[in-house]
Amino acid sequence: MVDLDSPDALALDSQGLIRGMDEAPSAIDEARAAAEAVALPFPAASVKSVALCGMGGSAIAGDIVAGALSERLVVPFGVVRDYYLPGWVGEDTLTILSSYSGTTEETLTCAMQATERAALCVSITSGGKLAAEYAEQGVPVVPVPQGLQPRAALLRVLVPVVVLLERCEAITASGADLDEARQTVADAVAALAPEVPTESNPAKQLAHQLLGAVPMIWGSEVTTAVARRWKTQLNENAEVPAFWSDLPELDHNEIVGFPGMGPLEAVVKVVSLRDERQHRQVQRRFDLTHELVRPHVAAVLTASAEGRSPLARALDLVILGDYTALYLALLRGVDPGPVAMIERLKGSLATTPFGRTAD
Length: 359
Fold this sequence. Notes:
single chain, alpha/beta
């Protein structure tokens, strides 16, 4: 097994994803500046609803923003993971077309429909058809640097969504929250970096606890979308099966299945993403649900968010989850960069009219 505290521990990380985490604070700065600089060809007052179209990390960015800023949203906000726009998207809908590669076929299909409906479109992308062709049609582009794994570009996609919502008056002022979120992210990176030994590093400790396990990640309210992010990072970086759910919904169905775990009891570990600002009944549900499922799983673990604003607390847990998945990859002897199964699927889909489907 790899010693995570060894100077040689990162040798397996061929794409430098772990070292790339150091860039998270500067990524927030650059993404914020890019979104503030883009010219919007429509007045803020014309926005009556918001749709974010994307897949993978691009869509999760919208989920995290919607969860963290839900109390400040003054117009309806929806995330579209599909080939078809819902009927309510129209001329007064801010339609954020989010695709890191600019070639995601689901997002490109939505872009075609959105422009046909004369929606208020803005794209967030590093290039591809989304930048080349739709920019010619007058769709403003918030540029994202090329050369990253899409899942490593979360902050570069998420921050522009916050800025665009503020600029279009879909939320109240967010500048102070972004400032705090940046500091929270910087603090989390400093606390979880490879140089921090395991005995003082919560991400390394959690990675060891999840080695050999099938993680089930639970969230609620602000941490619901973060739980989904943890699940996908564990899938893509560590190449392990992982699942996510949210409270209180899982208390109405999922808990009934735990007594039927059978052989899975030995490998399933629940990780609850807690937030001290969650509704008091949600807090009670976490505690009571843990008691009910503990006899049927290998372990129940908890990670708690830090930060004043909901956005800061969400991103604090995002950074913890990202580091945990990357360290778990090393413990498993897995290079966290390549995503072979996705590439195989993309190859099979490459003959479709939309080309490759990278997010």
